[in-house]
Amino acid sequence: MFAKAFRVKSNTVIKGSDRRKLKADIATAFPLLSQEELSELVPNKEELNVVKVYAHKGDAVTLYVLHKNPLFFELDKRLYPTVYMLWSYPNVLPSFATWAPVLQKIAGGADLMLPGVVVPSCGLPEVRQGDCCVVKVVGNSAPMAVGTAAMSSAEMCSAGMKGRGVSVLHSFMDNLWAYGDKSCPASNPDTEITGGEVVNGEENDEEGEEQETDAAELSECPSGQGNHQDTEQACIDVEELRLTECEGEKEEEEGMNLDEQKSPQDEMDALLLQCFLHALKSKVKKSELPLLASSFLRNHMFPCCPSGKQLDIKKSSYKKLSKFLQTMQQQHRVVRVKELSKGVESLVEVDWKNPVLRSFRAPEEPNVEEAPAQMREAGEKPYRPPEITMLYSVSARVEPLFLEANKRKGTVLQPGEVRTIITEYVKANQLVDENNKNYVHINPTLCDCLLEKSEYHEVCFLKWDDLFSRTLNKMQECSQVVFAGQLPIIKKGHIELIDISVASRGSNKKVTLIKNLEVYGLEPTDVSAALQHRVQASAVLHPVPGTKDKVLVQIQGNQIQQVGNLLLDHYHIPRKYIQGLEKAPKGKKK
Asked: Membrane spanning segments where (predicted)?
């Protein structure tokens, strides 16, 4: 399941009630855990995160992360442990042993086949089909994979140890393991399995000819005698596997050592210089000079900041933009800066032939807002706003008017269909006024369905438009939402609008809150990242109180104008479905 990269939907801190529920669910799923162990896994005062992800096949999975390591994952309302949790509590689930070469196949996404299972002298563990179980390597008690039993223990024996044994969901070295601190298991000798027999037969059908080679290799593995040399050799195999798999990461870490040695201030200085040169080379035109320094920073340098990073001059060694520009002028002679008034500077000249500027190569990293192109390259569909249609449901009050058209209570109709049915009803009952065809006679049925009690003895005629509007007002309003490539979704009442508001935090700080993005198929994480890149301000996600799956985006400052531009111009959400745009700060009068 996690052999390929997954996509994170949200990452929030668990609430108190959910923490207690999780603890109870773990106790039910893993009864061998003591109360002390449960308290270690779900501590009361330490931060525990709930991370919702989508696997590469589209499965929705919930991760529970403690100390940056995922301990459990929930799939189809069932809890499974990760290898990080199992390395601390290796005996909470029944286990199947196999050899190191087989583990390499499992790490690549294959299931554990019965010909590769090492049967201990005490026999196979007692499991039923679908039970959660783990896979270990001979000679090491640390579990290396988690999955479900493909058949019961009795069925495995009766099948002659052929076929699929364990359907693997997660294993050491997969992307779920890589989401944690990427630590490796300790080599703890397994005293329960000192030897075993391997029943050779069919290997994994998915591996084809390679699996036949593995079956031949497995047939040469030690069996039955359980001598110490065999166990030691198995341990060596595990160590070699671990070292081989970790070697690439160690090389990456060594390559990153130079970057890690840089202080955050040095990194910000380098980012500031990169954005400065990038802006001059690709953004600023000669016709724009002279250019205010503040405008140069806001309109040219900020958009050149790579995605995932935030340009903050206060965190650099320069502290102020003016000091940085003076350095670029005096040391590198890239620009010439002129002070217009105290605290106001302008770029009046750029040396386009400067060797520093000419040798600079702008990074090819795409902008965050070019996500649709990236998604098409990755095989994902770009975002398209949903088509929203107002419909009407037949209520009990007006049902008699629709019986002749075989429309019962609860039937959802479009306004044009309602108009047609009411017109046919009026004509069928000869209710059109002969003297003035713009009026309709009110019969007892129309009286009961459309008129108020005070109008019973006063209203005898209605105009056509009044008749239609009264009928629609007595019906239940519904909203039909259609996303591209999906079936229509019908919701009662008006569709929730995207709500943009400004709230105060602290003494004089303001934040912008955005709600109901999920109603329109927008991922709050994507919107948050795009806004963060646009305005260069921090953004966080918070669960909406009183809801289960909704998340609001909070970003520093009054950013209503930028949020509106993003939703209207980039995501093409119609303005009528956004409320709060009128609260945007108005420009100062010149």
From this structure: none
What are the respective helix, strand and coil percentages of the chain, to the nearest 5?
A: 40, 25, 35
CA atoms within 13 A on the CB side of 169: 24
| Beta carbons of 185 and 142 less than 8 angstroms apart | yes
What is the spatial distance between Cα 271 and Cα 442, in angstroms, rounded to a whole number?
Answer: 76
Going residue by residue through the chain, which has 590 residues, state the pLDDT in tens, using 9 for 90 and above: 888 888 888 888 898 888 999 999 999 999 999 999 999 999 988 889 999 998 888 889 999 999 889 999 999 889 999 999 999 998 899 999 998 888 878 888 889 999 889 888 888 899 999 999 999 988 888 899 999 999 999 999 998 889 999 999 999 888 899 898 888 887 766 655 544 444 443 334 443 344 434 433 433 333 333 434 444 444 444 445 444 444 544 444 444 444 445 577 888 888 888 888 888 888 888 888 888 888 888 778 887 888 767 788 888 888 888 888 888 888 878 888 888 887 788 888 888 888 888 888 877 654 444 444 444 444 446 778 888 888 999 999 999 999 988 899 989 999 999 999 999 999 999 899 888 888 999 999 999 899 888 888 888 889 999 999 999 999 999 988 888 878 888 888 888 899 999 998 776 788 899 999 988 988 888 888 888 878 877 788 888 887 777 888 998 888 898 899 899 988 889 999 999 988 887 755 44
Q: What's the CA gap between 35 and 23, in Å, rounded?
A: 10
Strand intervals (E) in 230-366 = 291-292, 335-341, 344-350
Q: Which of 303, 337, 307 is nearest to 320 (CA)?
A: 337
Q: Is the pTM of this model over 0.85?
A: no
Strands 551-556 and 509-515: antiparallel
CB atoms within 10 A of CB 528: 21
φ, ψ for residue 404, nearest 5 deg: -65, -25
Q: 498-505 and 578-579 as β-strands: parallel, antiparallel, unpaired? A: parallel
441 beta partners:
461
Instruction: Give me the sign of the Cα torsion angle 554, 556, 561, 562.
Output: negative
Whole-angstrom distance, CA of residue 529 vs CA of residue 570: 13
Cβ pair 399, 409 in contact under 8 A: yes
